Amino acid sequence: MEERNKTLGEFIIENQNAFQYSSGELSRIINSIRLAAKVVNYKVNKAGLVDIIGAAGERNIQGEDQQKLDVYANEVFIQTLINREIVCGIASEENDDFITVEGSDKSHNNKYVVLMDPLDGSSNIDVNVSVGTIFSVYRRITPIGTPVTIEDFLQPGINQVAAGYVIYGTSTMIVYTTGHGVNGFTLNPAIGTFYLSHPNMQFSKDGPIYSINEGNYVHFPQGVKNYIKYCQTEEEDRPYTSRYIGSLVSDIHRNMIKGGIYIYPTSSKAPKGKLRLLYECNPMAFIVEQAGGKASDGFGRIMEIIPTELHQRVPFFCGSYNMVEKAEEFMLKAELSKY
Ligand code: AHM
Ligand code: MG
């Protein structure tokens, strides 16, 4: 079959044997995410009609309660995974604590946990701008047969066995990695099937784009300010162009296709940064590295950070390898000049 006509379902089956410990569980997790993504996609596409069929908190004409879309997406992804009895635990950016999942026979025999941000950038929905789902899969650390504990979730990103995102954009796509490169699948909404549209996605080593919320400039650390000046200086391939959607999945997806760097630094307003290590940065870092890019907290590799809490925030620099390396140089130089 021609590579570009392959469906996500076919791709999952063909690649199942690439896993060292393959028992089909991971494939079933990706399949469940595929299903939940289609359900959420349907709802996200109808979001503009909400004023017509009823606003959040009201009852719609069918007598159903309207829900906020991020709450809805959270429930869809969690219930899809729970109903299929394929994970032993779930942690979500929407929930304060992790969820322990047991089988219908009350067993705890599954070996994977899923961490996710079910609808990132949801404030963009009101203005018809793309949003995304981000997910990350780890093998549990605690013994199979026992309920999961916090340890199973507080693993460094290097332990991820799979990570991906769904982008609900002009097209809806699933982009994911299981540690063997990054592949992107585009939904054909007419028949509800994802097709392999972006095989083996790669970041160019350098790129033309820098993405950062420059409105926060005065609050940024000196290294970031100096790097922004560098991006804007006329020399060789610079100045870079500035593109910032304010929707993490969309900004990184665009940079992966066109080449670029995304930065959400610490600031005097957000001293630890804004983005969450477990739900946003680690999965994106895994994808970015698998696509030949680099992901850093400004000084070191994101995926080597040992998490201490579920909702931990970190500064995030990711994208084209040489650009992130250059930003790190600026960070280090500014840091050293303090002494
Ligand atoms: P959220 O998880 O509350 O949706 O926030 C995460 C979003 C990212 O998608 C985006 O990159 C960032 O927040 C934008 O933040 P800001 O508006 O401060 O630039
Ligand atoms: Mg988020």
Automatic annotation (TrEMBL):
Cofactor note: Binds 2 magnesium ions per subunit.
Domain Fructose-1-6-bisphosphatase class I N-terminal: 6-199
PANTHER family recorded: FRUCTOSE-1,6-BISPHOSPHATASE-RELATED, SEDOHEPTULOSE-1,7-BISPHOSPHATASE, CHLOROPLASTIC
Binding locations of Mg(2+) 1: E93, D117, L119
Cofactor(s) listed: Mg(2+)
Designated name of the protein: Fructose-1,6-bisphosphatase class 1
Gene Ontology BP, a term: sucrose biosynthetic process
Binding positions for Mg(2+) 2 per the UniProt entry: D117, D120, E280
InterPro entries to which the protein is assigned, alphabetical: FBPase_C_dom, FBPase_class-1, FBPase_N, FBPtase, Fructose_bisphosphatase_AS
Organism taxonomic ancestry: Bacteria, Pseudomonadati, Bacteroidota, Flavobacteriia, Flavobacteriales
